[in-house]
Specification:
Elements (H helix, E strand, L loop, with lengths): L10 H17 L1 E3 L5 E3 H10 L7 H41 L1
Antiparallel strand pairs: 1-2
Length: about 100
């Protein structure tokens, strides 16, 4: 593996991997022991409107930062695999032409 390779970011792949995961995590509904159903988005709105800012950081990390990080890693791996596949295809065509 060549670690000196220039870091390329495919913004569309990053968007494709990250945003659906964020939307799912924000809107996923949980049921607590009393039977009430809530989502992290509802909790975020409730906490921010009542000034309970210290409770916002955990959902923000798990629902925003983690999907962004995992989406970046996935897009990098897919992009690297695609570039490797294309390079191997070019080298095979060049050797066949000789």
């Amino acid at each position: 593996m060549n670690f000196k390779r220039k870091l390329k970011i495919n913004w569309w792949l990053w968007f494709l991997f990250s945003v659906p995961a964020m939307i799912y995590l924000w809107l996923k509904q949980y049921e607590d022991k009393a039977g009430a159903v809530h989502s992290d988005w509802g909790d975020l709105v409730y906490y921010s409107s009542h000034g309970l800012w210290r409770y916002i950081f955990a959902p923000l990390f798990w629902n925003l930062a983690l999907p962004l990080l995992l989406g970046w890693i996935l897009q990098y791996l897919v992009g690297t695999a695609w570039e490797t596949f294309r390079q191997k295809g070019r080298s095979v065509k060049q050797t066949d032409a000789c």
